[in-house]
Amino acid sequence: MYEIFLNWFGNETLSMFLSAALPLFVAIVPFALFAVLLERKVSAHMQDRLGPMRVGFHGILQTVADILKLIQKEDIVASNNDKRWFNLAPYLVFVGSFAAFAAIPFSSKYIGTHAEVGLFYILSVSGIVVVGILMGSWSSNNKYSLLGRMRSVAQIVSYEIPTALVVLTMVMLTGTLSLDTMSQQQTAYFWNWNLFGGAGHGFVQLLLIPFMVVAFIILFISTLAEVNRTPFDIAEAESELVSGFHTEYSGMKFAMFFLAEYANMFAVSAIVAIVFLGGYQSPFGYLGNSLSIPWLIPFEQLFWFALKALFFVFVQMWLRWTLPRLRVDQLMTLCWKYLIPYAIVNLVIVGILTLF
Amino acid sequence: MKTEEMILNMGPQHPSTHGVLRLEVKLEGELVLDVKPHIGYLHRCFEKHCENLSYPQIIPYTDRLDYLASMYNNFGYVVAVEKLMGLEVPERVHYIRVIMGEFQRIASHLVALGTYGVDIGAFTPFLYCFRDREKILDLFEMTCGARLLYNYMWVGGVSHDLPPDFLRLAKDFIVYFRPKIKELNDLLSYNKIFIERTANIGILPVDTAINYGATGPILRASGIPFDVRKEEPYAVYDKIDFDIPTGHGEKGTTGDSWDRYFVRVQEMEQSLRIIEQAIDQIPDGDVHEAIPRRVKPPKGTVFSRVENPKGELGYFIISDGKDKPARVKVRPPSFLNLALMEPLCKGHLVADIITILGSLDIVLGEIDR
Amino acid sequence: MKNPEEIFEILKTQFADAIIEMSTDLPTEPIISIQPEKIREIFQFLADNEELKFDSLINLSGVDDANGEKVKDENGNDVIQGGTLSVYYHFYSIELKHKITLKASTPRENPNIPSVESIYKTANWHEREVFDMYGIVFSGHPDLRRILMPEDWEAGYPLRKDYQNPEYYNGMKVPY
């Protein structure tokens, strides 16, 4: 992406800025807006009702109406709040979620930056989200927010560990931290995907499959906990704490928290898709290859990438509307007593197997 | 490690206290030390009103006590007044009252189970339960014109006879609803996360339950098969065959929240049985023939109780021979069930308060009257 | 399972002076009247005795007997002087399946009845409600304060027959 812009504009900083920002504004922000509507329609159809139907055809323009409403709301800042941190918190959460997209490859030509440390960068940047949440609930000066904050910080910090362990496993297997290289390794057909053992290790591939499946499940559950979705959404448990740490926010700031949550969901789904399911590679070979139209290939890759990520987003929404919520101590038990030991054992076994 | 005590106010407006209830919770970190409920926000002076109204005029006011189970409030009141007057009503009236009462029991339990799911975090069963409840409310609307507050059972009879289609539609509903209970079980009752959230929470031993005056599904979940419909049968419950579900500690200990929840699910199943038998046995007759022109009971007192979906509803009426009662006292089941919050919540976490409160299934309308 | 006469006989032999009478002229249920001073002993006996075993106090209600004389006070309102306030207790035994009603009366001017909360925990909230509505003070109750009315309601006890609404409560006009 960077090279294309450099050719067009000739200015280095401008093309750097554009290549990092373009995926965001063209793809992610519209996705976040679309995801709000998607969630409402998906949940409605699961619950035997219709969802938004009036605004636009079958409710398609509902998000536009929501954003218009939120923009004109009064921005309430209570007098007991710490104004600086109160105003800063939503922006931090927003930035933390969206900055992760700079390192995610949407297709072989469409990537924000070619940094070699892609995965490491993403994991670190999601830490900013934790700081944002902490800031938001502390400055709200509200007992409910306090409880929500403590729970959610404990949850996010604990679940970083299984995430990091599984990422470490995959790094050992593929030998690279960069998401782009990882996607390129899982070429051609779907049996080259990492979920089925990775590309080209021979007999070891088959042995690796059960451990890859276990790693996949652990990663999916941990990232679900990272983004505070049910069954792990105690931070915003509506029925107990009245929206937890964003009780006191109204108007555009609330919208920022909201959009950041959906962007986070997409980022996490994208990571799972890239690490295990082949990223932007198609499972069946490319139309562009068979029809000899080489410039079609990046668009096809974009399509497959979007399909895989959206599938995981849909699974996350599906889980939210089906399962009840876990209690704090049960959540922590799940992490420390079950996920982490399994992840460690997995790591050791995969490490041994990659020696062959 | 010593931490500070914090007093958290789960105030009158809160998404999951079922109504306007204020809970003053003393916390130490996440551990609950003490819970004090404050009520009285919905007090409408029902008992004072009764002293200025004639007996039939009180019936709409009884609707508004437990607004989710209005038929049963009416039922309890007219059974008490008829006992005081020594009035005999026709068989058909008894059967109609039983059918309406049991439908109301299913509707009230559906609300209780749905909202309990929402409290735990599962949003979908709530909508499924309300969808099924709509069908019951359609049946009620067909009969007496109202969906929630009916004013249906009068002293000596009922206000409207069953419309001609009613029995057929009731049978259709029973056929439709049986598989839905199974669906609810698959989705919520046997869900592992739900069981982890509710089993072994708020264990109520039998002696405490009886001493605190708990009744209804709560007492039955602790192991005692005590049901007013079998102990002191009113209407035609002695001619109908049904079981009393009790708690066995299937998923935890006897008397925990899961047992209280599951007893309600099984009670819905039993209500379907009762309705089926009542529909088969119902005789013909005139529902209005025993309604007296003026209700003037002789001097005396009566205390009669019926099995509300929430517990045991008692009416204590003192009459001194005039056409207005001298004293009407309502013994609401939720009033005493709520007093159980204090011993049950000690030693649990904050999230469990909501679980226990949901399993007690209270309605503020009847606590505050 | 016993009928009320037998229960009355058992109680009379045990507490001869505290049991007053049993009124059987009412059509639906006979009521045993007792003196309020020895309520705790009587109730403990009811709960423990092997033949009675009343383990469940199902109802506790206050009643204004309105058997005093009506006089007009300084504002021209009707006030009842003299007479009694009563408390009715309904018992049921889950094991032996019998029930009984007891009644205790106390004078209107300074109503005072010993609390039975230590024996039956049900009575905790019931007695608070009777105190709130009638003003009967239950001695020995651990936490006697108003339950349905706001806790700082000064204007009297609502369910008494001669209760008048106050004009103002905390600056808000009461009758509207």
- Tell me roughly what share of residues is in helical segments of chain A: 55-70%
| Helix and strand run of chain C | HEEHEEEEEEHEEE
Low-confidence stretches of chain C: none
- Give the helix tally of chain A: 13
Radius of gyration of chain C equals 18 Å
Alpha-beta classification of chain C: alpha+beta
Overall pLDDT metric of chain C: 80
Highest-level CATH class of chain C: Alpha Beta
Proportion of beta-strand residues of chain A: under 5%
Q: How big a fraction of the residues of chain C is strand?
A: 25-35%
Gross morphology of chain C: elongated
Q: Main β-sheet of chain A: number of strands, strand sense, barrel status? A: 2 strands, antiparallel
Count the E strands of chain C: 11
> Structural class of the secondary elements of chain A?
mainly alpha
Indicate the mean pLDDT of chain A: 77
What order do the helices and strands of chain A follow? HHHHEEHHHHHHHHH
Order of adjacent strands in the largest pleated sheet of chain A = 1-2
For the terminal residues of chain A, how far apart are their CA atoms? 37 Å
| Major interchain interface with per-chain residue totals | B-C, 38 and 34 residues
